[in-house]
Amino acid sequence: MSISAVLIVKNEAHHLRECLDTLTWADEIVVLDAGSQDETCAIAREFTHNVSVNADWQGFGIQRQRAEALASGEWILMVDADERVTPELRDSIQAAVQQPPAAYSVSRLSWCFGRFIRHSGWYPDRVLRLYPKRQAGYNAALVHEKLVVEAGLAEKPLSGDLLHYTYRDLRHYLEKSAHYAQAWAEQRAAQGKTATLWQGVSHGLACFLKMYVLKAGFKDGKQGLLLALLSAHSTFAKYADLWVRTQTFEKQR
């Protein structure tokens, strides 16, 4: 059963080669670029001829749908440029596609600020990534897109970790967090949703307590404390962004 490893990318030259090095066993590698200004496409072409560019960005869900359509394999393995497939996960994938069709989840182990994060609600962080092309596909969400599986298709876990090198440094975290907060607020505003600053404070506090206490973030050392604080800030920021949009709209009426 043929496997297409599929990636959507933009300005990922610093990550891409290391990622694709762990995918050379796949029958096909498909890379859809969103208009990179670095060497992303050149690096991708070192590994595959199936490199396309679509800079008409309409969100993560739509971009993944476009990438899915470019794949010719019977199975799709969706991977991000900052991820690495371990040998154990590779073997599990190759065995899984010999079985009856199912949607398979992988456990992501994230490296952040100098260590692998094994608590804080970050691990095993299971996400559906391997699926039969004709029986599953991504929705059109602007952000936090999800795989939608055909009714009756079983969901099963794979063994082995997908290593996730999530943030280069604190600036990268803050920039990525701001992008997600903006996309979240835009999506909610388009649905007619509103928010208050108090919701931002309460949700942010709840996020910190959940990560650091309930999810044992304290076991991740200083990185666990930093992540809990940053996540609380990010949670507050997305509600604050939605509140600001609401206030601006009210004044314009």
Task: Explain this structure.
- This is Glycosyl transferase.
- It comes from Vreelandella lutescens.
- InterPro entries: Glyco_trans_2-like, Nucleotide-diphossugar_trans.
- Residues 4-112 form the Glycosyltransferase 2-like domain.
- This protein is α/β, with parallel strands linked by helices.
- It has 7 helices and 11 strands.
- The strands form 2 sheets. Strands 1, 2, 3, 4, 5, 6, 7, 8 and 11 form a 9-stranded mixed sheet that branches. Strands 9-10 form a two-stranded antiparallel sheet.
- Helix 5 runs parallel beside helix 7 and helix 6 (197-214) runs antiparallel to helix 7.
- The longest helix has 32 residues, at 221-252.
- The mean pLDDT is 95.
Descriptors:
single chain; nine-stranded mixed sheet; two-stranded antiparallel ribbon; 7 helices; 42% helix
Tell me the number of strands: 11
Q: pLDDT average, as an integer?
A: 95
Termini Cα gap:
57 Å
| Percentage of residues in helical conformation | 40-55%
Q: Main sheet? A: 9 strands, mixed
Q: What letter string, H or E per element, gives the SSE order?
A: EHEHEHEEHEEEEEEHHH
Low-confidence stretches: none
**Content-based structural category:** alpha/beta
**Percentage of residues in strands:** 15-25%
- Using only C-alpha atoms, the radius of gyration works out to 19 Å
Shape: globular
Number of helices: 7
InterPro entries: Glyco_trans_2-like (IPR001173), Nucleotide-diphossugar_trans (IPR029044)
Keywords: Transferase
Family: Belongs to the glycosyltransferase 2 family. WaaE/KdtX subfamily.
Pfam families: Glycos_transf_2
